[in-house]
Specification:
By secondary structure, this protein is an alpha/beta fold. It folds into two domains: about 200 residues, Rossmann fold (3-Layer(aba) Sandwich); about 110 residues, Rossmann fold, CATH 3.40.50.40. Helices cover about 25% and strands about 25% of the residues. An eight-stranded mixed β-sheet has the order 4-1-5-7-8-9-12-13, sandwiched between helices. The chain starts with a strand and ends with a helix.
Length: about 325
């Protein structure tokens, strides 16, 4: 029987009513006791590492999750991390970048309703997460509703629907039907031949700026003046920036000249960025702006934080 470690971080799934609304309160053992299907599936140990509404999750908490995984990696066959839904895609992406050579399942899950609520989706999500954690999955994934999703491809698309997360620009690792995981030709995200390691270095001074019609580019001075090291421009369509009378290109050049990495992303959910299609993209690229490619904002942000964190450590 496989040994699985359940790491609790709070979130709606673990919440109970209070005078001010739902607050995280239940630990992993209490939640697992409400899912009788887990009996006989695996041996489960529990560790509560955080107890937060996921809106309060910050980069320092991703580091805590990664360190908890590193501390027990060799003691367990897989891991389930229960998490609030609002920032779970950020956390799954962050761990995907921080953890290398992971040949065991690391499975995030949460719920739209508390596990004790009537009609909750939490019990099914927890059971499915443990199914994934006892499979041959390798690396970080997110299990929610009908899908098992690569940790770098998950995005919260619905605030209430039980299929709250979609796999972006990549088919799900598996679909779930009648409590069965149907893998899409392979079982898991897979890893390279790297040895397992965790690097928690992050540069936290990275921002995402959503470009809206008419927004003045001088807003970028705020981030430059405060020492930000990276800026992701969430722009329109293929990912370029405005270049007419409201010209963003001089500010993009100013940031890059001052050592700030600039990524062009898109507000479109699917297909990603192509800076070679229109002048608004090609001109930004010539100045040194980079493309976020097909990555979600969550994956692009955490990737840039990881790369800049590694660069900072190298320079120390």
């Amino acid at each position: 029987m496989k040994k699985i470690l359940m790491l609790g971080t709070g979130g709606t799934i673990a919440s109970v009513p209070s005078a001010d609304g739902l607050v995280p309160a239940l630990d992993g053992k209490a939640m697992a006791a409400l899912v009788p299907e887990l009996t006989g599936l695996c041996h489960i140990d529990y560790k509560q590492i955080l107890n937060l509404d996921s809106s309060n999750i910050a980069p320092k908490h991703w580091q805590i999750m990664a360190e908890a995984l590193a501390a027990d990696y060799h003691n367990y066959d897989g891991f389930v991390i229960t998490h609030g839904t609002d920032t779970m895609a950020y956390s799954s992406a962050a761990l995907s970048w921080m953890v290398k050579g992971c040949k065991k399942p690391v499975v995030f899950t949460g719920a739209q309703l508390p596990i004790e609520a009537k009609g909750t989706d939490a019990k099914a999500n927890v059971y499915h997460a443990f199914l994934a954690a006892t499979s041959n999955l390798q690396g970080v994934a997110l299990v929610f509703g009908r899908f098992v999703i690569d940790g770098l491809r998950a995005k919260k698309m619905c605030s209430e629907n039980f299929d709250g997360f979609y796999s972006i620009n990549c088919e799900p690792l598996a679909t779930i039907d009648e409590h069965t995981l149907n893998w899409n030709s392979y079982e898991g995200a897979g890893t390279s031949g790297e040895t397992f390691s965790v690097d928690t270095a992050l540069e936290k001074r990275v921002a995402v700026v959503k470009v809206t019609p008419g927004l003045a580019p001088d807003i970028l001075n705020y981030y430059l003046d405060r020492g930000y090291k990276g800026v992701i421009l969430e722009s329109f369509g293929a990912g370029g920036v405005p270049n007419d009378e409201n010209n963003w290109l001089p500010m993009v050049e100013k940031l890059i000249t001052n050592g700030v990495r600039v990524l062009c992303a898109t507000q479109c959910i699917y297909d990603g960025v192509n800076l070679s299609v229109y002048p608004i993209g090609t001109l930004a690229k010539k100045l040194g702006a980079e493309s976020a490619g097909s990555l979600t904002i969550e994956a692009a942000l955490t990737k840039l934080m990881k790369e800049l964190g590694k660069q900072r450590n190298t320079c120390l």
